[in-house]
Design brief:
Blueprint lengths: L1 H10 L1 H21 L12 E7 L5 H16 L5 E9 L2 E8 L5 H15 L10 E2 L8 E8 L5 H16 L5 E7 L4 E7 L1 H6 L4 H11 L3 E8 L2 E7 L6 H5 L2 E5 L2 E4 H4 E7 L16 E6 L5 H16 L7 E7 H31 L2 H8 L1 H15 L6 H14 L1 H19 L9
Antiparallel strand pairs: 1-3, 1-4, 2-3, 5-13, 5-14, 6-13, 7-12, 8-9, 10-11
Length: about 425
C-alpha cells in the first residue's frame, strides 16, 4: 500500500504539488475564518431557563416553578441532563444537550416546551431563556467616567442609550448593566391614613397601574375633518402620581398624596461596583454570542463605543474595565513567535543534517502544508485558535519533520547500497 502510494506520487509529481498547493490555500482561508480567542471554550452545550417571582421563598420557588419546569423539559429529545437551582425570588434551570446538537435548534425546542409548561406555573409568571452565550462569553467590560452626573442618571444613560446601541453589534448576545441606581417612583404609604379612608394596599397598586396608560378612541368627524381621539395618561413626573384618585370619602376624592408621599428613589441593591477603590461607577458587560470570533466582536464593540461617544452628554467618557483582546493578542503572538522559532530551528537542523538543500526543502515544505491542514481540521470541527490549540501545534512541529527525515535517510542509505554494490540490479531501491 505504502509502496504503491510512493510510486504514484513519484510518477504524478505535478498532481501532488497541485494538491499540496490547494491544501495550503485552503488552510490560509481556514485561518482567516477560524475564530480567535485566548482560552478554549469547554463549557457544556446548554440552554438556561430563568424565572423570577419576587418575594417568594426558595421552597415555594422549588415547588411552584422549578419542579414543574424540570418535569416538562425532560421530554425534549437529545437532552443529556437537566440541572436546576432555586433561590429567593429566582429559579434557574440548566438544560444540557448532547455536544453535537445545534444550540439554536436546542433553544427552539426548549421554547416550544416552555409554551406548554407555562400553564402549570402561577398566574403572571413567564419563564425566559438566558442569552445564547457560554461561560467564557464575557469579553469586554466598561464603565463611565461622569464626575458631574449622579449614579441614577448614569444608570439611566447606560440602560436606555448605551446598552441598546451596543446590542446592535454583530456577535453580541447581551449587554448586562451594573452599578448605580435604577430610578423608580416610590410611594410611601401611611397605614393609619389607609385605614381611615378605608383604602387597601391593593387598591393603591391597581389604581396607580391603571392610571399609567394611554388609551385609544375612535375617529371623530366634524366639519368634514377627521379627528383621532386618544387618552394620554402616562405618568411623566412625581406630581402625576400624587394626584391619582384612589377613591372617595364623603364625596371628596382621595388621592395618593392624601395617604402617603411620593419620591424618586433607586431600586434595592445587593452590591456595588467599585473602580480601583476610587468610588462607585456605572458600566456594562458585553457578552459574546455562541461560536463568534471574540477578537472581531471586541473590535466591533470598540468601534461602536466611539460612535456612541459622539452622542454622550458633555463630560461623560468611557473607560475599559476588562478587555480580553489584550490577552488574546499576547497569547497568539507568544505562540506564533514560538512556532516561527521552531520552524527556523528545525529547518537549520535539517539543512545541517542532510547538507543537501533539495532534500532539506522536501522536508521543510511539510511544515507549512501540515500547519495549513491543521487549521482546516480546526475550522471543520469548530475549534477556535486559542492558547491550547496553537500550543499543541507548536509542540508538534518537531514531530512533523520526523517522517521526512527518516524517509530521506532511508533513501540515502538505499542509494548508497545500490551504488556500492557489485550487483545493483538485485537491490530493491
Amino acid at each position: 500500500m505504502v509502496q504503491s502510494l510512493i510510486k504514484f506520487s513519484i510518477h504524478n509529481r505535478f498532481l501532488i504539488l497541485l494538491l499540496a498547493g490547494g491544501l495550503f490555500v485552503w488552510g490560509v482561508m481556514a485561518v482567516q475564518r477560524n475564530p480567535i480567542d485566548a482560552i478554549p471554550d469547554l463549557s457544556e452545550n446548554q440552554v438556561i431557563v430563568f424565572t423570577e417571582w419576587m418575594g417568594r421563598s426558595p421552597q415555594l420557588i422549588e415547588d411552584q416553578i422549578t419542579y414543574p419546569l424540570v418535569s416538562n423539559l425532560q421530554g425534549i429529545p437529545r437532552i443529556k441532563t437537566i440541572r436546576a437551582a432555586s433561590m429567593f425570588a429566582m429559579s434557574f434551570v440548566y438544560v444540557i444537550f448532547e455536544d453535537d446538537v445545534d444550540i439554536y435548534w436546542a433553544r427552539t425546542r426548549v421554547l416550544e416546551r416552555l409554551n406548554y409548561a407555562q400553564r402549570l406555573l402561577p398566574t403572571g409568571i413567564t419563564p425566559a431563556l438566558g442569552p445564547d452565550a457560554t461561560g467564557v462569553g464575557q469579553v469586554f467590560w466598561y464603565h463611565l467616567n461622569a464626575p458631574n452626573m449622579d449614579l441614577g442618571e448614569q444608570r439611566a444613560l447606560q440602560d436606555w442609550y448605551i446598552k441598546l446601541a451596543l446590542q446592535t453589534v454583530k456577535g453580541v448576545a447581551e449587554v448586562a448593566s451594573f452599578g448605580g441606581f435604577e430610578k423608580q417612583y416610590q410611594i410611601v404609604l401611611d397605614p393609619i391614613k389607609l385605614q381611615y379612608y378605608n383604602i387597601s394596599l391593593m387598591d393603591v397598586m391597581n389604581k396607580v397601574k391603571t392610571n399609567n396608560n394611554d388609551v385609544g378612541g375612535r375617529k371623530f368627524e366634524m366639519s368634514d375633518m377627521g379627528y383621532i381621539i386618544r387618552g394620554l395618561g402616562y405618568l411623566k413626573k412625581k406630581e402625576d402620581v400624587e394626584i391619582i384618585a384612589l377613591g372617595e370619602y364623603k364625596g371628596i376624592p382621595v388621592r395618593v398624596k392624601d395617604v402617603g408621599t411620593v419620591q424618586m428613589g433607586g431600586d434595592q441593591r445587593l452590591g456595588i461596583f467599585d473602580a480601583n477603590g476610587e468610588g462607585e461607577v456605572v458600566g456594562g458587560m458585553v457578552v459574546m454570542r455562541y461560536g463568534q470570533n471574540a477578537d472581531e466582536v471586541i473590535k466591533a464593540v470598540k468601534v461602536k463605543i466611539k460612535e456612541i461617544q459622539t452622542g454622550m452628554p458633555e463630560g461623560v467618557t468611557f473607560a475599559t474595565s476588562y478587555d480580553r483582546s489584550g490577552l488574546i493578542e499576547a497569547a497568539l503572538e507568544n505562540v506564533k513567535g514560538k512556532i516561527e522559532e521552531e520552524m527556523i530551528v528545525v529547518s537549520l537542523v535539517v539543512l545541517l543534517f542532510l547538507f543537501h538543500w533539495r532534500s532539506a526543502m522536501s522536508i521543510i515544505i511539510q511544515i507549512p502544508i501540515t500547519l495549513a491542514i491543521s487549521f482546516i481540521l480546526l475550522d471543520a470541527f469548530g475549534i477556535s485558535s486559542n492558547l491550547m490549540s496553537l500550543t499543541g501545534i507548536a509542540l508538534a512541529i518537531g514531530v512533523i519533520v520526523d517522517n521526512g527525515i527518516i524517509m530521506s535517510e532511508n533513501a540515502y542509505r538505499r542509494l548508497s547500497e545500490w551504488q556500492n554494490s557489485d550487483n545493483p540490479e538485485n537491490i530493491d531501491i
